Amino acid sequence: MRKLIVFDLDGTLAPSKSPIDAEMATLLAALLSVVKVAIISGGGFPQFQTQVVANLPQDDRLNNLSLLPTCGTRFYQYKAGWQLLYAEDFTDAEKATIISALQKAVAASGFAAQQVWGETIEDRGSQITYSALGQQAPLDAKEKWDPDFAKRKAIVALLDPMLPNFSVHMGGTTSIDVTKPGIDKAYGIRKLRDILGIAIAEMVYVGDALFPGGNDYPARETGAVCIQVRDPDETKRVIETVIACLTE
């Protein structure tokens, strides 16, 4: 019996930086009625609130939901309100080092976008995120910019030697996330194990980038059962199947 279903957010529960739709909200609410659920993503906590939490019923089912924003560098549980259990925050000096390296790597790669929508580098406290087209870029532009990951792979290849004391990994559609060393979605899954007391063998991870090099791939390396999905519509069918299995 699986005791915890873990989801990626962008591309899995909703399009990049978009709210979950009504059908997904209904399915997640039903899932929370029968099993614990966690969401791990590179987005910040406000993004989780806008995309997911605000669209769910505000009732006791939230007690079954764990949120791990910024790739698991923060962990929130609901106990009469959202409580922060830990945060792996950067120092000011670490932030300055990372931001400088990002600026240099993007310039050296030749892939700096000609048009951007908002800031391209965001300080999320425990994660610095580079969004190639800016934080408010429209989804259609984001989907066209780096569909094969080639641009971001080139930038990451430049960043890695500049930031040997940090973890650098590709995030959503156009992003690159920098965290403290050893922090990725595998780190988040192990934190879920430790805090919730649920063995990894009793978890299922659902994501759209479980292939080698994808930002969900570290979850596969933990030994958790993993389900690759193409998009939120396929995730909905997975949730329906899980609910059916758990309520037989």
Explain how this protein is built.
This protein has 248 residues and is an alpha/beta fold. It folds into 2 domains: 149 residues, HAD superfamily/HAD-like (Rossmann fold, 3-Layer(aba) Sandwich); 88 residues, Eukaryotic phosphomannomutase, cap domain (Hypothetical Protein, Haloacid Dehalogenase-like Hydrolase, Chain: A, domain 2, 2-Layer Sandwich). 35% of the residues lie in helices and 20% in strands. The protein is built from 8 helices and 11 strands. The strands form 2 sheets. The chain has a 7-stranded mixed beta sheet, covered by helices on one side. It has a 4-stranded antiparallel beta sheet with strand order 6-7-9-8, with helices on one face. The longest helix is centred in the middle third of the chain and has 18 residues. The model has no long low-confidence stretch (mean pLDDT 95).
> Could you give a short account of the major beta sheet?
7 strands, mixed
Question: What's the shape?
Answer: globular
CATH superfamily of the largest domain: HAD superfamily/HAD-like
CATH class of the largest domain: Alpha Beta
List the helices and strands in order. EHEHEEEHEEHHEEHEHEH
Tally of separate domains: 2
Percent strand equals 15-25%
The number of E-state strands comes to: 11
CATH architecture of the largest domain: 3-Layer(aba) Sandwich
Measured on Cα atoms, how large is the radius of gyration?
17 Å
Strand order in the largest sheet = 5-4-3-2-1-10-11
| Mean pLDDT metric | 95
Amino- and carboxy-terminal Cα gap: 12 Å
